[in-house]
Amino acid sequence: MSNLVLNIKGVNKTFGGLQALNDVNLEIEEGKVHAIIGPNGAGKSTLLNCCIGRLIPDTGSVTFDGENIIGKQAHEINQMGMVRVFQTPEIFPDLSLLENVMIPAFAKRDGQYSFNIFKAASSEQDIIDEATRMLADLDITGDRIYEHAGSMSRGDKRRLELVMCLIQHPRLLLLDEPTAGMARHDTNRTIELMKKIKESGMTKIIIEHDMHVVFSVADTISVLAQGAIIASGTPDEIRGNPIVQEAYLGGAHL
Amino acid sequence: MNFTKTRSDLTVMLIFSIAVLTMPIWLAPIGAGYPDLLQKFAIFGIFAIGYNILFGLTGYLSFGHAAFLGIGSYTAVWSFKLLTMNVLPAIFFAVLMAGLFAALIGFVSLRRSGIYFSILTLAFAQMSYNLAYSVLTPITNGETGLQLTLQDARIFDGPAGEGLPSTELFGISMSGYSGFYFCAVVLIIAFFLSLKIFRSPFGMKLQAIKSNQTRMKYTGFNTRPYLMTAFIISGMYAGLAGGLMAVTDPLAGAERMQWTASGEVVLMTILGGVGTLFGPLLGVGIIKYFENIFSAVNEAALHNFFSFLPGFLENLMVTIITPFVGEGWHLTLGVLFMVIVIFLPGGIMEGLDRIKKRYKTEGASEQTGDKE
Ligand SMILES: Nc1ncnc2c1ncn2[C@@H]1O[C@H](COP(=O)(O)OP(=O)(O)OP(=O)(O)O)[C@@H](O)[C@H]1O
Ligand SMILES: [Mg+2]
What we know:
The complex is a heterodimer. Chain A is globular, with a radius of gyration of 19 Å. Chain A contains nine helices and ten strands. In chain A, a hairpin with a 2-residue loop joins strand 9 (220-225) and strand 10. Chain A has helices at 44-51, 74-80, 97-110, 125-137, 154-166, 184-199, 211-217, 235-240, 242-249, and strands at 4-15, 18-29, 33-37, 59-64, 67-68, 82-85, 172-176, 203-207, 220-225, 228-233. By secondary structure, chain A is α/β, with parallel strands linked by helices. Chain B has a domain at 10-257: Orthogonal Bundle (ABC transporter involved in vitamin B12 uptake, BtuC), CATH 1.10.3470. In chain B, the strands form two sheets. Chain B has a two-stranded antiparallel sheet. In chain B, strands 2-3 form a two-stranded antiparallel sheet. The two termini of chain B are 35 Å apart. Magnesium ion (MG) binds next to helix 1 of chain A.
């Protein structure tokens, strides 16, 4: 009997006439890495949007750690411990790399609002140290931590966003295609980074097109097609599932 | 920001305080070393510093901050009329009232962002202006403006003697240089607070909101209260500036709240450098200094200036330049503003930065040259 972190029940979402999510049920257990795969437009991002307060499902319920989160605002859901990496990198392009990582650390420590102007950011030594350490994991060291985040490569931006989420030590991390559009070596660096996270036992949902990535990090996999979950199981079960082969993998060599 | 390379608060404050307090000395050679103009520098400096906390840090462009300036002035004059000629209560109430109004206007305007926010603030300021001009005449004395009279109660000072009393701080009259030094000390305190805000995590979060508000929300911050705080603080700075205007000249008129006055602070901030610590002050200095010079120039003075040219050229030059001086000073300002926005969007501070960088790279290439 393991703990349920996230429980999605009977979620439907339509955009105009388009049924983007069709009666989706999903249970995420503590400490597991759960992958969601599916073709373009299957509704994967929409499902995450329904979890983090960007969209409100038409029907159904989403509970996080036993608490209903539908109708809660984005910052409240983050403060509860569900944190998301976006499909297109969302960082602070005008701030330095160090500041980009410090900001989420402040959110974790001080909550959704705090007003204290008499301690300089430069004397927040604990947070600076932690942020610097995390940036070192990205091989960003020395004076490079003062560079503007906006001038980095796309791959670096994505990994930066990942680190920004990790410094919050989330209870549940949602990753939306962390390696999409990356070159092979870039992808490998990201996988390395994610394996590190897996070792720390963090619960994760990961959306990914790259099967290589999926089978190397996931404990369980769900397949989404046209808004509905057509199969769920361990990587081996999914590999052998004929419906999946037909509907999505198209007989690809797995 | 590179933490290791920023100067310490103490150094910055020391340099700043000395520069402000010695203004009468170092501004004298360019003809700006007299109290009237110096007071203007200090007062508009406070206005712009406060405005920069909102616009510079959060990127929210308010077109209505003159309303808070006006509210500060009216409140201060009422304090002089009802309570005492001492400037401290006047300043206190001016800041308080402006803060209350800012809370109200901010509460409504901050429901929107971008252009809609700007328009909401503009509408509010224009409403305040019209109210002050007409409906609220009993409070604002409408077109004439609010002034001191011999009948004022002034419950702490007792009845006025001969003539109107002047504003004072524990017996020191706030006219001439003492007026300037009072404003200068307030400016130094105001700058200190702004420095603290800029360098605090709070200021960093405001900049993060400017950079990517969506990310801020999904990072766990409730952005609205942050914006509210910045809006109210900047409104209070404007109220402080308005109060000081009444201190140096105890009268308040509705025109102080007009949209052109709101536009001026936007201009000063952008000209100097939005979001930089010193930029807005530079903007204020330049605009107020040249306003002073240009608006005093008239046609006769121009003829005098160009008298070395042959007659027809002299007339031509005078005809060309006349629309830009005197009453036409705003035309010059408009042109200057366009040039800055197009060629130097980061304002004068960006210009200085570029010069510094060029100087540095030249220095660096010289060094490598030495090695060869
Ligand atoms: N806000 C929205 N308004 C209208 N339609 C939307 C919206 N968001 C998503 N959709 C539509 O819903 C469907 C599912 O989109 P979604 O982004 O969830 O797909 P996805 O599985 O993440 O695809 P991809 O692999 O391309 O990222 C698509 O047809 C998309 O056009
Ligand atoms: Mg998607």
